[in-house]
Sequence to fold (2030 residues):
Amino acid sequence: MSATILFWAVTTAQIALGIAMVLALARMISGPRAQDRVLGLDTLYNNSMLLMLVFGIRTGNSLYFEISLIIGALGFVATVALAKFLMRGEVIE
Amino acid sequence: MNRLFPYPLLIILLIITWLMLAGFSVGQFLLGTLTAIIATWGLAALHPAKPRLRRWDLLPRLFAIVFYDIVRSNIAVAGIILHGGRKVGKSGFMTIPLDLRDPMGLAILAIIITGTPGTAWIDYNSARNILILHVFDLVDETAWLNLIKNRYEYLLQEIFE
Amino acid sequence: MELVLSLGIGILVGSGVWLLLRPRTYQVIIGLGLVSYAVNLFIFSMGRLVTDKPPVTQAGAQIDPTTFADPIPQALVLTAIVIGFATTALFLVVLLASRGLTGTDHVDGKEPDR
Amino acid sequence: MNLSPEHLVIAPVLIPFIAGVLLLFLDDRARHVKAFVSVLSTIVLLVISILLLCIVHTDNSANEDRIAVYLLGNWPPPFAINLVLDRLSSMMLVLTAMLALPSLVFSLGRWHKAGVHFHTLFLLLLMGLNGAFLTGDLFNLFVFFEVMLAASYGLVLHGSGLLRVKAGLHYIAINLVASLLFLIGVALIYSVTGTLNMADLAIRIPQINEANRTMLESGAAILSVAFLIKAGMWPLNFWLPTTYAAAPAPSAAIFAIMSKVGIYVLLRLSLLFFGSDPGFPESLGAQILLYGGLATISFGTVGVLASQTPGRFAGFSVLISSGTLLASIGLVQTEVTAGALFYLASSTLAISALFMLIELVERGQNMAASVLAVTMEAFGYDDEETENEEIIGVAIPRTIAVLGTCFAACTILLAGLPPLSGFIAKFVILNALFSPGESGQMHFIPATLWWFLALLIFSGLATLIAMSRSGIRTFWAPPVDTALPRVLLIEIVPVAALLCMTLVLTIQAGPVMRFMEATANSLHAPRPYIEGVMKTQSAVLPQPMETTE
Amino acid sequence: MNHAADLPIWATLLIALFLLIGAGLTLVGSFGLYHLRSFYDRIHAPTLGTSWGTAGIAIASVIYFSVVESQLVLHQLLIGVFVMATTPVTLILLSRAALYRDRTENNRDVPPLHPLRNLPQASELEQDSMATHKNAGEEQK
Amino acid sequence: MNSEDLLYFLIALPFAGSALAAILPANARNTEAWLAGSVMIAAFIIAAGLYPFISEGEALRNEIEWLPGSGLNFTLRMDGFAWMFSMLITGIGFLVVLYARYYMSPRDPVPRFFSFLLAFAGAMQGMVIAGNLILLAIFWELTSIFSFLLIGYWHHNAAAREGARMSLIITGTGGLCLLAGLILVGHIVGSYDLDSVLAAGDRIREHALYVPALVLILLGALTKSAQFPFHFWLPNAMTAPTPVSAYLHSATMVKAGVFLLTRLWPVLSGTDEWFFILGLAGMSTLLLSAYFAIFQQDLKGLLAYSTISHLGLITTLLSLGSPLAAVAAIFHMMNHATFKASLFMAAGIIDHEAGTRDMRKLSGLFSYMPITATLAMVASAAMAGVPLLNGFLSKEMFFAETLGQHSGSVLDGMLPYVATIAGAFAVTYSVRFIHTVFFGEKARDLPREPHEPPHWMRLPIEFLVLACLIVGIIPGMTVGPYLHTAVTSVLGEHTPQYSLAIWHGINTPLIMSVTALIGGVLLYLALKNYLARCEDGPPGLSHLKGQHIFDRMLVTLSWRWARWLEESFGTHRLQPQLFLVMLTALIAGSWPFFGAGIDFSSPILTGIDPVFAILWGIGVACALGAAYQAKYHRLAALILMGGAGLVTCITFVWFSAPDLAVTQLLVEIVTTVLILLGLRWLPKRVAQIDNASTPVAWTRRFRDLMLAVGCGGGMALIAYKAMTNAPLSDSIARFFLERAHSEGGGNNVVNVILVDFRGFDTFGEITVLGIVALTVYALLRRFRPAPDSIDIPEQQRRQNAFDDNHPDRSIGETVHDYLMVPSIVMQWMFPFIILLAVYFFLRGHDLPGGGFAAGITLAIGILLQYLASGTRWVEDRLYIRPVRWIGSGLLLAVLTGVGSWLFGFPFLTSHFDHLEIPLIGELPVATALFFDLGVLLLVVGATALMLIAIAHQSLRSYRTRSADTEKTGEED
Ligand code: NA
Ligand code: NA
Fold:
């Protein structure tokens, strides 16, 4: 029973996150402006972080936690750099 | 002492972080303390403006308020997205003059505003201490003004100034 | 899964190769990036695809090698990632230097004759 | 420190590494100290390389195969990485050190001042080369290829400048693709054999089942493409003359050995992996090496004739050399391999000398210097590196005569004319092709051999035509306004030293060829190599610690 | 699902609930990102995922591992904290960049540089924006 | 000392003398001459002294092993024939040295001259006494090289340079062909030893390779001896100083070809091929060159063509294959050497004294220099074949031989007529030489007032002419025995009966001689007036100069065609190169499958997870999108590439590789920032729809697309095949999994592999990273931005202008406001990131993480500060010395490795233990941790160095820009 519920919950969550990633990708591709694409990438990062967390639950293995941690703590650096490039034309002044 | 432990509160936060990461044990506590001290040296090297926490007892209250607001606004924004059309007619910019000046306080305010769905910190003018927000559901501008000024800024001013 | 991944690798390679054959240095560096992903995945996949068997053993436990993913391709990929990172950085700087010295971002250092 | 002789095997990797790293702690202004350290370590490297060669080969050991295996991390073969010293690798080590010392000394004249970290890059290039020659592991070979290539990128770009950057861009792009191919090849081979150790692969490959065989061949073929790019086989070699011509002279001089790394690997791996297959000499792979080699000689010949600058000329000479070696390897005959090894040594020395010499000669035309000057001026900020360009040593008298003599010697070497080793090299290959006496006696000689013969002769001729053309123009009919090149003693001595080495090769051709024959024999019959590696035991501990086996 | 069968049902239900809340909010947020028309509307959408989307799934994970490992495992919460702290940074920077770009392109839907004043006239906007700002500044003085 | 050992001295003396001569001072003309003369005379005496040992038909042999494995030994072998040549080389060599002492101007750099001359003599000597075919080829090529140097001696003269180069190329080519031919002979015989070869005549002639070997050897001989059609280099070589011509082009160098033909005559001759090739070449040379000689206006030119013609005569004789003809050939070699050397010297004296060699200007010199004139007349008579002179004797033998039947072909039938006509031509040019130069009215407008040369300068001529006379009158008593020894040594048991008498009675040869004499004189008389004025070269053929044809051919072949071929089969462009590389790889990789096909029958498949499929849908879209956008929308392409990287990263997680995912993700972040840093310096690019929409461009794109599809498809197929292949049971992976914990002290097998089992790979890998960082740094120190990207970005300009234009704002306030909140967060993230780095580092051995991940994390932390607050702000506070980090990291890594030596273990042997620490408990400590720490330090240093070096460019170009502005004044 537990297993079934958990299986369905995890599967549903994963599929939902997968679709969420597709939507983020759609924004990345369609733009229209660079800031939209960056926002899309940021969302994609976040969604995949969640996907990895769910994957951890699915496998019952906490080894995959680091990847989520890195996305959570450091993933924003790329986005920051992109945003700063848009704003200042230069990443590091 | 000040050179060894430049940011005591930060060290505690770091030790807690370490223990959350590595698990709770005496060994990890010692290791975490050591790491935390080294890590604060890293920050000290940058010597950023040192925040003065005047009323740290108000912090839990702030967190509680924010927690609640976030839950609420999650529901609200999700609802609008699911029910609304492609263009949300009610969204818009609004300008708020601030009284809060402490950078750390401003940073926390920005995190709260932006982290909460439905409001976004767009622009800040330090000379005039003016904040431009984008609000997703700008039906009642004064309600938002009230929220920011009285619910958050007030508390932050208490804490930091 | 194998089919999905191999198709993915194929398309990464295809896109990368296409870009490698383009005339602008920036296209080439993006192409190198894409092909590098594909090659890393390729090396990785040589250890076969196994889900949830990371090669992290339990202290003191009896070790059954079949219950772990092949660690060697993983170690190789790690080395390849690092080297790929280094060379990408180098290529980037060289393309910047080339752009600075030649004034163009064409891979040959001059705009093609029209 | 317990420096037992077996640690000597890894010394060629560690010495340049440690020296190069230590230099990073020195200030850039301590240039003399840097020069001293790097020259000293290169001398030590040369001595150790020669010692290592003496370990694996003495004149009365010509018929036995001595190898030394070094187990990194003390893990038993075939699981982890090991270094294998045999005749071929020790010969390549000696050759590398023999090129390195003159190139390095040459750079002290002016080049090491043209940019930062020259000595470190140079020493790490040596580390990469030596590692590639020593390693007995396929993936570790990749790593050392990368070390070597990374350092070579740095050395090509050393001093910056339009030509170097343009050439460097192509060089890097192509080698990056080659590295990716290398990885694909290694991965495929691992996927069907489950091992990376070369000796272990040599055991496993013949036992592979039919289905996996195709995969293995595919992997080996992709791997070979990577090596062929580095070896400079036509049509994968257009980058080579451009890059070598653009590289600073001392870099190009040491690069002479780099194209030989590809050759080395092809020779070693093809014979190790497939040499036991009696059908190998007729296989497609061998044929491709042979015909590709011939095509490369042809292209090199054409290029030698068509080249307008001496630098490109020298680059195309590298191609001729590569082509000759590839075709020789493709014939898969012990005698030819022995001849090819001699040729490898001779042509590498000659090309290295030529690259340095060209720079000295061109200095009269002041080309390289002006390119450098433009770059430095163009971007405003003053460069501390070039401020104190004082003269080290003495400018030599009769410069033109000395340069002319060296140029003539290079011509003779590259064209394969007597009395220098270029002739002997060509002769031993030709002689092996038509191996006289016993087994020879073929009344029918296949067309490819005729082609090979014709191309060898014609390439020599083309070299003669092209070099006499430019030599006469440079030394006999100098334009009126050419200034006498300012050549320092420490720049010409390395060139002369390399040329003298070719003279030594000529005079000592007998013993040298005996060595090459012994080397070729062990390459073509690698059983002792394989067994030697696989039987090596981990060191047992003096004090109790968990051991293997 | 190594240990799924051993989980007590209350834990399972809680986990499932938080998982679905988190994933659902994230999906809605991403849908908003895709669906909404203006950039400034769109920046609100992903915060669903970074706030309660993340929190939901992190809590689910905390419950799961705490129950399975029979000890309090909190490290997933750290992710939530980091996300909470860093997401605003990216959003602030991005929206500021968007604002800058919109202003230089004289996009009328964004607030002016001087929020206490009225929007400048369209004719002024066509001119060099810098000149406009200069005038505005002087007038204010 | 043995007489055999003296052979070495014959070679060593000249070379040693050459080396000595080279280092003497430039003005030591007399010392040089003394040195050279002594060497020549010493060698002459040694050679003469060896005669007793070879006079009985035995050969003196001496051998040093050189390259025994390949049959090349330093074998010297002197028999009668070689002895004869040795005498010519040293004897005439001595005379030439004597002559040169007076001929060379004090201003000439004589050390070089005598050095080359002696070296040439040594090479020639070596060639004649070489007892090994390859050794012979070696000395052969040496003569070409030294003759090149001698001909080009006066290299300020363009004609000398050209002449030298032509001779080198032609004789050098011949030499290479000869080498090939000799190798074939060696292949047939099984040895290069001359004795073995000479004993294997029948085997050689019957062998299938006889013809190729013959052709190659003849190419060598004919080019060297300037035989038609390779003759034209010789007249051009007349730019050499006359002593050189006298030596090389009469007695030695050009004789090498016929020497070789004679040397191998016993084994190669007597076949149809031999006769036809050699006969045709010899006869045409004989006739044509004699004809050409008549019309030369340059004295030396006339002598050069005459030389060619006489060599043709010798070649013809050798081609006949009869022993008697061979005797005649050998005899004529000697005779020609004597009279031609003296004639060259005479011509040199005339040139020297009169200042010109143009026969149109020279006239009536007899009255100025009667003795020289007389000597020249005698020598010319010998050349013309006048009785009582040596030339007559050998020519009579030649005429006699032409009459015999050799193959019964047309060529054979023509031979007597050709010989007679050529004889007549020889008379004509000889008469012309004498008559034009010495007789007639006195020349008036000569550059110099001619008179007799110094006596010592004339002495060599006198000596040689005396030899002509003595040999011509009493051949049997003088040259007879020596000739016999030479002939016997060549022909052995086939030596025929012959007599060297002057008078054989009235026979056909005599009639031919007389005919030639009379005909020649008549021809001269008929042509006399024409010749006095005509252009250089025979009528109608003067424009058909071999030299021009050669030059044209050389330019066409070695330049035009070569360049065309290089352009056609090579490229300088990157795109075609990459295309070829990848096409080759595609073909190479798929080739094995064409034979075997692909078997999909028993794949091991895991079921498709829909989420994973969605994931790769995203990955694929990102890849395609990046490929599509990279040209015009760089940022979009970068973002999409980031998406593809993320999918790659998740795939690693999905299939059990958390370490890879961690590393990939961190590298991904740094790479993105890195590329963004670079993006600032790239040119603005706007989409141009019409750009390159030509059919050619479309074809190229289609071609590229096909290759991309091919490569992608190929990779997909191989990957699929490999992934679905049954896993191997005996992979070495097992070893690592089993021992990672027990012997490596870590649970994370991948990390244990990286720092321990295969730590050497990591050692190399960090070296690569370090090298690249240093290179990036070095290159960027010289970075020069393109003019159009030197300005600060538009955004900053606008924002600064805005601040500038507002009195209540100071410059930089906009950016300060903009970054205020983010930079606070980013600063306060710093300690947390440091903490994360330590965490990753410490747990790496047991769990995902490790030194590399930790290093990058730390570098990202530093990078974040740069992003937040700018370069200056950070560098005012953090004093990062990345190069030191790099150095320390690498040093720590290597020291950890070397540390194991202390315990007698190989490099990188690790040790681990479980330390019992109070309060903390058991802590595994492995030496590998130190190694990993080295990795960490290096990664931080390298990453920081690269990022900072690029970031600094903005500052540097800012500095340049302000310097420029100061110079040019304020901008608008
Ligand atoms: Na928000
Ligand atoms: Na190379």
The helical segments of chain E are 9-35, 39-42, 46-68, 75-104, 122-126, 129-140.
